[in-house]
Amino acid sequence: MAVIGRIFSTLGRALPLLLVLFVGAGVAQAEDADAKARELLSKYKADLKASKDISDDDGWNAFVRRLRSLRELGALDCPRSREGLLRIARKGKRLDDKVLAAQGIARSADLESVQSLIGELGKERHPLLVQATAEALGQTKHAQVRTWLAKAAGELRTPGALAIVLRAGRTIPMDTASLLVHYDTNAIKTSGIDLAFDALRALGLSSDAEATKRVLSASAHADHRLRMAAADVLPARERTEPHDVAIRRLLEDDEPLVRYATLRALGTAERLDLLPAISVRLGDDDRRTRKTALDVLKRMTKQDFGFDGGAWRRWHESKDEGAKPKPQTVVSYYGVPIWSDRLVFILDKSGSMGWPFDRAVTNRMAVAQAELDRVLAILPKGTLFNVISFATKVDLWRKKESPAEPKAIAKAQRWVAKQESRRGAWTNTYGALERTLLQNPRIDTIYLLSDGIPEWGDVICSEGLLAAVRDWNRYRRVTINTFAITHMSLNPGRYARKASMNRAATFMKDLAAAGGGTYRFVNRPPK
To answer: How far apart are CA 311 and CA 101, in angstroms?
Structure first.
């Protein structure tokens, strides 16, 4: 007992010293973060002045440093960094700055800063800032912020602020009663469909009986966008007969996008009982929907009976694995099968596309043109297509899609052959995607080939560009396939470093993921 007493006595004397050391370390760490934030803000301001013109290397490098400073500030989460980021989110010179600043605040642990940010951006209501901020908020791990977000939909009144919070509700469970009010209020008016869409998808996380009623009723809503929202969440909910009836109805919907959205959602659900209804879509009028149905069936069953719906249904009844699919002949682009009858090819023609592709005289532009010329010549008759090229500016072959008929194909091939890589022309990926999605309303698939990271346009940073794609694609659901064409060992100038090419490859992978498509690295001519 005496020994135990001495131990407790020693601990009692040491505890105050340990507390002092612990508090002192915390204060020192906070001071270090504050000093680092002050240094980064000073660098940001200097690079902001130096990057007013990013058309030369000095300006571009200053712009890259400026974005790097913003990312580092967002990782500090101290009072000075939050103060600086809030100021930039409000008054930043470019959308890039605002996006990175807003995402830094949204990921912070400081509730007051998050509330201030949402209030400010809610007034501006810029679609890109709404999307980028909501995505970052949905990933926050901070309990206080998550607790506030869970009930914020019942407290906010500004449509822009509501849009941010409701969209974060895709990953953060929110107060069901508030979500129901927002859905009921907005689902009955065309101007409110955006908020109703987000409220409904947030309701998908709730098991409340009233939430279930709204999701089921939305599956038969007059507006196809709300039917799409129902399709997004229904397969993950409880399995009841009303739910199954709604899913089957969505699989038979008149709108191809609704059928496609339903199949995509079913792709992550083990619903073998719905195999007969899914197999019917193997004969869908929409080519992409047919392929998605096949992918879902193969993923669920680990079988492959091709597009023979009868064979799938017979297997489902008897589990006979003896049937074999008939081989399918499909046009491919750099090895990626083209399962679309409404598509656009996007071709980078920036200055670096004139750089060598291999140790022969071939440059990247020539390789890209040859493959595109080959694919255009064999597009299935009736396919709707367009071709877009981009560098600093964006050029369209035609203002809208054309059927793949001999005369149109020949004209498109001649247009592609005339595209040239121009020295000094930069990579405006944002402009190319924005123009494609706005100018071609009927397309469902994009094939984008580029050799580098975005360098020009309204948005350059990858965080902003990917958020923009997800925002444009809320109702479009366009599949985006990407192709990075390059040869690391032969890159002159700015992209000579392997790290630069790795960043470009990472961006192209992320872009394909954001568009639900496929990524390919092209480092040798297609066979």
So the answer is: 54
Q: Look at strands 384-390 and 479-485 and give their pairing.
A: unpaired
Q: Percent of the chain having pLDDT more than 90?
A: 74
**For 321-370, how does the pLDDT look when each residue is reduced to its tens digit (9 = 90+)?**
666 666 677 899 999 999 999 999 999 999 888 877 766 657 889 999 99
Helix, strand, coil percentages, rounded to 5, for the chain: 60, 10, 30
What's the pTM? 0.89
* Non-local CB neighbours of 65 within 8 Å, separated by 6+ positions: 43, 47
Whole-number Å distance between alpha carbons of 235 and 263: 9
Q: Higher-confidence residue: 3 or 131? A: 131
Check: CB of residue 296 under 8 Å from CB of residue 235.
no
Q: Are 82 and 113 in contact (CB under 8 A)?
A: yes
Q: At what angle do helices 57-76 and 95-106 cross, to 10 degrees?
A: 20
Whether 20 shows a pLDDT value over 70: the answer reads: no
Paired with 520 in beta bridges are 483
SS3 string of 111-179? HHHHHHHHHHHHHHCCHHHHHHHHHHHHCCCCHHHHHHHHHHCCCCCCHHHHHHHHHHCCCCCCCHHHH
Q: How many residues does the chain have?
A: 527
Q: Note the pLDDT of residue 322.
A: 62
Copy the structure tokens of residue 279: 């197999």
Give the list of residues 6+ apart from residue 293 with CB closer than 8 angstroms, or none: 263, 278, 279, 281, 282, 284
pLDDT in tens, 418-441: 999 888 889 999 999 999 998 888
Say if residues 73 and 41 touch (Cβ distance below 8 Å): yes
Which has the closest alpha carbon to 450: 375, 385, 519, 513?
519
Cβ-based neighbours of 472, under 8 Å, separated by 6 or more = 433, 434, 437, 438
Residue 12: Cβ-neighbour burial (10 angstroms; 0-12, 13-18, 19+): exposed
Contacts of 226 (CB under 8 A, 6+ apart): 187, 193, 196, 197, 200, 218
Each residue of 505-518: pLDDT tens digit? Answer: 899 999 999 999 99
> For 133-143, what is each residue's pLDDT tens digit?
999 999 999 99
What CA–CA distance (Å, rounded) separates 33 from 100? Answer: 19
Task: Kindly tell me if the per-residue pLDDT of 485 is higher than 90.
Answer: no
Note the pLDDT of residue 199. Answer: 97
